[in-house]
Fold this protein.
Amino acid sequence: MLDYNASVLLIYTGGTIGMTEDLNTGALKSFDFDYLKGHVPELNRLKFNIDNIQFRHPIDSSDMGPDEWKTIVRIIENNYEKYDGFVILQGTDTMAYSASALSFMLENLSKPVILTGSQLPIGKIRTDGKENLITALEIAVDKNPEGEAFVPEVCIFFQNLLMRGNRTTKINAANFKAFNSLNFPIIAEAGTYIRYKHELIRRPFKGSKPEFHYLLDTNVAIIKLFPGISTETLKAIITIPHLKGIVLETYGAGNAPSENWFLDIIEEGVMKGIVTVNVTQCASGSVEMERYHAGKTLKNIGVLSGYDITTEAAVTKLMFLFGNGLSSKEVKEQMILSLAGEITMYHELVY
Ligand code: ASP
């Protein structure tokens, strides 16, 4: 049910959706929000209020990171009571990382936070941006008859699909269907109607207040295995000063080389207290370290299973947990739990 007295805050950070062509080079560069609004006159026909706030300098999402995520959290905290929902416009390239980080930084949400953007700038006739933006805004004010938001979660809406943010991955650099949620079902689909799968949507604990978190620790790394990875490469990463966490992208169900030099280096890191999380390189499926000897040896030296978490969610979760001052032992305990729906716990298996 659309609430016509509702108000949405649209946070414009940059990205293709608001870009124009640089006349000299032909490359796309960010423009400002008024330009974007000028190309979507439909915004004036929506029956609820839309206010906007924009980054002083809109950016390509390749430049997004912890500082920008903190700015977004600050904007949402400062405006939380005033608005029914929030829509964030950002570039698609790092949107899955932003959505994952925000899902941990915005705890106990009772209001929607929907990220969207586009593959073609809003000024192009065939743009996908209009549809993405307008539907994201509608989702941000959609409520049940009791006046509660349908989707009090951090989500990405793209090409008719509403996905839990920390389950998404950018899967295509050119298609309009740029994102997917491969280990968790789509939580709503927009056609003639927006069909929500209410049973999949997270809800805040009754009576709980939102909590806004700002502390992130970037002493983390991602190692993607490949046949031929060298001792030097691995050793160089493990010995980075102050490194606290590693997302180890392994093969298949969580398998890695069984050679001693490899296992010794990984173990050296674990013994130093580096929390090492096993995540599969496959687009979908889960790590099962008991399935093959090559996975079991990793488990035996203290590598944690990331189960079906995405790399984007795993690396931002490590930043979040270490940022909040947790010890390696505490981080390990939290990494195997679902904090914001980023891991499928067995009792939640719905597909
Ligand atoms: N390079 C752009 C960005 O991520 C791509 C996009 O917006 O889709 O900002």
In short: Residues 15-16, 60-61, 91-93, 117, 119 surround aspartic acid (CB under 6 Å).
